[in-house]
Design brief:
It is a single chain. Helices cover 43% and strands 17% of the residues. With 355 residues, it is α/β, with parallel strands linked by helices. The strands form three sheets. Strands 5-4-6-7-8-14 form a six-stranded parallel sheet, with helices on both faces. A six-stranded mixed sheet has the order 10-9-11-12-13-15, sandwiched between helices. The longest helix has 18 residues.
Length: 355
């Protein structure tokens, strides 16, 4: 998240509550306390906030914007990386509609999610854009969704009967199609064996793996190409290196010269490990990253699949506004499940197959 975006979010919290508390702000926006404190200090230096013990308040001549029915709640697992662009997309449409968003960040914690959603409801928001902490269908989450009394549009999630008693508008990236794009690109370059290294515990993984397997089968490529589950690089860098090196070993053993790697940070690290072993990218190994958040900044700029994150947020905001604007209370507006197609950005990490 850019510094200016952080400061805008902090000012929104301040106008909502009249003040910001450093520790609470860090939790709500998904920031470290050091980052939150620095941003608050910057806003105090510019005169937008006034420092008090533990945080800051609005200047005395600033009107607090109490949340009423014109505001929309936006609840996401994180406010950085993937979801920063989802937030930006929703914000762009909200601005066009003359409404404002009130953000809640849950850090993939179900208890925090329910607490933040309820707080937004208590503050009087007109509806909620929600990416649930649970991303696989489940009875508890479904029953909780059914208990909410205001319109909800799901982002990058979709729950349906029998998990829920009623249907919900939803907007999702089609990761199955995204994986197919990556496989097709490498196949067009002449690669018949394409490895897959993937973060299995993520919402993206199921669709990505399905798309990979379907397209490999359709194109009659090697179905036994290397496959490697990956840990979270931020919490287990050593384990990540072990897994990626094992993946490289298997690619060498099988003569595989192409790989799809989820996510960007893992793909970037794979390039570094390959270089340390004298494996050239793309001459010896073509790599396609998945997410395209930091792929362009790898040692070798990475060809990457780009989910339409901005469009997910923007489309969700439009769906919610259409439902809220219906004079029947949304009853005459059909439920929509939107599937948005990723794109492929070709950079320097892929090339034609060389025997």
């Amino acid at each position: 998240m850019l510094a200016v975006e952080r400061e805008q979010l902090i000012l929104k919290v301040a106008r909502r509550d009249g003040r910001v508390i450093t520790t609470a702000l860090a939790q709500e926006l998904g920031l470290s306390e050091i980052t939150a404190r620095r941003a608050i200090n910057s806003l105090c230096s510019s005169g937008h906030l006034v420092r008090v013990h533990g945080g800051a308040t609005l200047p005395s001549n600033t009107k607090v914007e109490h949340v009423l029915g014109s505001a929309t709640g936006l609840v996401v697992p994180t406010s950085d990386y993937y979801y920063a662009r989802v937030i930006a997309g929703a914000e762009s449409v909200a601005a066009q509609l003359g409404t404002r968003l009130v953000l809640g960040v849950t850090h993939y914690d179900e208890g925090s999610e329910k607490e933040r959603v309820q707080r937004l409801i208590d503050l009087g928001v007109r509806g909620i854009l929600l990416a649930t902490s649970v991303y696989e269908p489940g009875g508890v989450t479904g029953k909780w969704l059914d208990s909410l009394t205001l319109p909800v549009v799901l982002m990058e999630r979709s729950f349906t009967y029998p998990e829920t008693a009623r249907e919900y508008d939803s907007v999702r990236s089609d990761h199955t199609y995204g994986a197919a794009l990556a496989v097709r690109h490498l196949a067009e370059l002449g690669h018949t064996s394409i490895g897959l290294a993937i973060r299995e515990e993520t919402p993206t993984a199921r669709g990505l793996k399905a798309g990979y397997e379907q397209t490999v089968a359709q194109l009659k490529l090697d179905v036994d190409a290397p496959y490697q589950p990956l840990p979270i690089i931020a919490t287990d860098p050593e384990g990540t290196d072990i897994a990626l090196n094992a993946f490289l070993d298997e690619c060498i053993r099988q003569g595989t010269k192409a790989a799809i790697v989820h996510v960007d940070t893992h793909a970037s690290r794979l390039v570094e490990l390959a270089a340390s072993r004298g494996i050239r990218v793309p001459e010896d190994l073509s790599i396609v990253a998945y997410d395209d958040e930091v792929a362009a900044f790898a040692l070798v700029p990475l060809t990457a699949v780009s989910p339409p994150k901005h469009a997910v947020g923007a489309s969700a905001m439009r769906l919610l506004d259409a439902r809220l604007g219906d004079p029947t209370g949304g009853n005459d507006v059909p439920i929509q499940h939107l599937s948005l197609m990723p794109g492929l950005t070709v950079r320097e990490s892929t090339t034609k197959y060389h025997a």
